[in-house]
C-alpha cells in the first residue's frame, strides 16, 4: 500500500500536462472521431426541461460499452454550458493501492479534444486535508477519470478541473473533500463508477437494481465493492448528499450485455443525477 505524499509540487514532477493513457483503446484517439462519437451518444438522449444537477454518477468503461449510459448523465448538463466553470472529478484507483485521496501535481490534463487546466487553488485547498496528498502514480495510467473528460469537454466547453483518485477512504473522508469544494452552481461534482462485474446478465440486473435503489435513497451503508467498483467515491457523495438533503435519480441502468458484449459475463453501468 503506497502512502500519499505531502511534498511541494516542485519536488514531485517535471512534466506539467498529463497525456491520455487510454485514447485509442477506451475511446477514439482521433479528435474528429471522438467528437462525432460523443455527440452521437448525446443526441440520442432526451433532455427534460429542468435545472442541471449538482452532481452526477456515470460509468467509465470503453465507450462502446458504457458511452450510451454515460450520455444520460452528461446530456443533463447541456443547458449549463455557460454556468459550470469547475468540475470536481472523483474516481476509483484501478492500478495503485493506497490509503486516502490522490491529487495530481500536473497543471493540465489533455485529451484528443484539447487541454483542460487544473484548478490549482482548489488542489491546494483540499491538500490541506489530512487524507489528501500528491500521488502521481495513481493518475498516470488511471482510466476512471480520463474517460469522462471528452464528455465534459463536449457539453461544457471550457472549465477547470479538480481530478481526484480515491483509494482506501471512508465516506466522511471523501465527503470532507466534496464539502470543501462544493461551491455554488459554478461547480459540478462528477463521480466515476461502474456497477457489478462479471455476473451473468440476469444476476447483474438484479444486483444493479438493488444498487440503484441504494444510490437513489442515499444509503451508502448498503453499497459494497462487489456492487460498484467506485464504491468509495460513490459513498462519499451519498454521505454528503444525505447531509445536504439532495435527491438522487436513476437516469439509465444497463449493462454490457445491452450495448456491445455477450451476456454470460457482463459489467453493469448506471447514470445518476443529484439535485
Fold and architecture overview:
The protein has 275 residues and is α/β, with parallel strands linked by helices. 33% of the residues lie in helices and 23% in strands. It is built from 10 helices and 14 strands. Strands 3, 4, 6, 9, 10, 11, 12, 13 and 14 form a 9-stranded mixed sheet that branches. Helix 7 packs across helix 9 (231-244). It starts with a strand and ends with a strand. The model is unreliable at 6-13 (pLDDT under 50).
Q: What topology does this entry show?
A:
Elements: E1 2-3, E2 17-18, H1 31-43, E3 55-58, H2 63-74, E4 86-92, E5 98-99, E6 101-103, E7 108-111, E8 114-117, H3 120-126, E9 132-134, H4 137-140, H5 143-146, H6 149-156, E10 160-166, H7 171-180, E11 187-192, E12 197-199, H8 201-216, H9 231-244, E13 248-255, H10 256-259, E14 266-274
Parallel strand pairs: 1-5, 2-7, 3-11, 4-10, 4-11, 6-9
Antiparallel strand pairs: 3-14, 6-10, 7-8, 12-14, 13-14
Helix pairs in contact: 7-9
Task: Throw out a few tags for this protein.
Protocatechuate 4,5-dioxygenase, Chain B; alpha/beta; 275 residues; nine-stranded mixed beta sheet
